[in-house]
Amino acid sequence: MYATNYHRASSVDEAVKLLSDTDEGKYVSGGMTLIATMKQRLASPSDLVDLRHIPSIKGIRVDGRRVTIGAATTHAEVASSAAIRAVCPALCDLAGMIGDPHVRHMGTIGGSVANNDPAADYPSAMLALNATIVTDRRQIAADDFFRGLFETALGGAELITSIAFDAPERAGYAKFPNPASRYAMTGVFVAKGAGGVRVAVTGAGANGVFRLGAMEQALAANWLPEAVAGVTVDPDELLSDLHATAEYRANLIKVMAKRAVAAA
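RE: above sequence
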């Protein structure tokens, strides 16, 4: 790895100040993506600001159907949360599918959302659940947060502090994982709540995570797995790589959507 300076922050304000004072610094929490890219010399931040010792951005709170998850909460903590499972089991199931036990015990929900990997699981949940991304400066609707491959609305030293959403009436998630990395080659999160039906797809979009309006309309009219059978998925907007063609992913979206609705 390249030489870098390490800083341990004990509060959000301290973390923001530390990063603001660096040339090309980065926040690090679980480090599941950043440390790996540094080892491969694909990233060379001048400084690392460690967020793992900030108590205020950890933990899970459920008030009625309002769920708030601290950004530094690990995937394993989300997967095993009885409070979340009582109101939104689909999110626990999603978290339990991420990577392997090591990744789930180190990786954090805030880190995943901030990185916005096009094959990550959490971004689809954020869109489908109409979540709010809370930072040290503002609140950002998920629809406005994800802006493309590895791109988000975050600016400068802005730091995600928590994720919040109202648990839907029903929700489900299904993915076709890469057998090696367990990233989603295609994953679909469906949710039905007071605001209607929302369907978000990860691992398949050429521009990252996206909502599928035609499928939302079909499921709003008939909440059954069979309802998505007649939906046309345009492969022109999908990713094609060594793992799967765009046409194959178009079919996977329908298959995963059926499974997600059945799970819900």
